Amino acid sequence: MTDNAVTHQQVIAAAASPAPTVAGTGQRRASASGTPFTRALGIATIIAMAVLLLFGLFLSPADVVQGESVRILYIHVGTVWVAYVAFGMTAISSAAFLWKRTTSLTWDRIAGASAEVGVLFMALTLFAGALWGRLAWGKFWVWDARVTTTAFLFISYIGYLAVRGLGGSHQQRGRRSAVVALLAVLEIPLVHFSVKLWRGLHQDSSVADTTHVKLHDLMLFSLFLALVAFTLLYAWLVIHRQRVMAMQDALDDKGLDYALQQRRREGDL
Fold first, then answer.
1. Mean pLDDT across the chain
2. Calpha distance 187→152 (Å, rounded)
3. How far apart are CA 135 and CA 229, in angstroms?
4. 28: which strand partners?
5. Which of 31-40, 100-109, 122-131, 142-151 has the least mean pLDDT?
């Protein structure tokens, strides 16, 4: 077990490390885990995040009611948007894996990578929401319908990740986790419409409901920037995470084949 864990770490480290220096040039080749597309995506993500930081902290005005605390919402809205997108992509990829014409482990790995990123962003959503709640409601946590259902969604996808780690073959992992993903995604509409269903403390949509809420142009632009920047970050993370998963699966398959070969040799003695 220890040797196998070390091997996993070595493979992951090798994927992240740059290629050796080319003799006579003094320059390093591009990392083996990167492509022109992923490098361009990474640069675009950094630029978008920098612009979001500029507008979110300095150029957009304070809210008339919420004051400076409105700046937390640029993170809060962006992260919850990505969490929804990530969990939706997990469900779509899971359905593609279960479909007989596309039973590829690539879909399963995309589903798993997207769920991991979604859990990360949902944790950031809850954290940012707690900070905003402390300023708006005087408490970090209240048993509001939106807050409670969001926490339940977060726990559900932690359970999904736990199901992925139960062991068995790659195909077994893909089938059981796909079923859980297709059930868990049904919670998203419940979370989204919980404010209307139970009329809790959490405010309703500020962007879609333009009849009651008027946002300053720079505030609206900052929210749009948040959606773009965090979506780019999500795409970059999922691409690289599913590549690491592919390497882990390949390593598991090679180790199993070697073990079976050694077992057969022992039987021939």
1. 83
2. 9
3. 25
4. 21
5. 31-40
Q: How many helices (H) and strands (E) does the chain have?
A: 9, 0
Could you tell me the pTM of the whole model? 0.80
Q: Which residue's entry shows tokens 């962007």?
A: 207
Using the structure block, give the residue that is written with the tokens 């057969």.
Answer: 264
Rounded Cα gap, residues 76 and 99, in angstroms: 35
pLDDT in tens, 44-94: 999 999 999 999 999 999 998 888 999 999 999 999 999 999 999 999 999
Q: Which residues pair with 21 in a beta bridge?
A: 28
Please choose, from the candidates 193, 98, 206, 182, the residue with its C-alpha nearest in 3D space to the C-alpha of residue 146.
Answer: 193
Separation of alpha carbons 269 and 250, rounded Å: 29
What amino acid occupies position 266? E
| Structural tokens at position 114 | 């997207």
Residue 202 has pLDDT above 80, yes or no: no
Q: Are 130 and 85 in contact (CB under 8 A)?
A: no
**Distance, CA of 198 to CA of 146 (rounded, Å):** 9
Amino acid at 44: A
Q: In Å, how far from its chain's centre is CA 263?
A: 40
Nearest to 247 by CA among 38, 39, 7: 7
Residues 260, 205: Cα–Cα separation, whole Å: 57
Give the tokens for residue 166.
């139960």
pLDDT of 29 strictly over 50: no
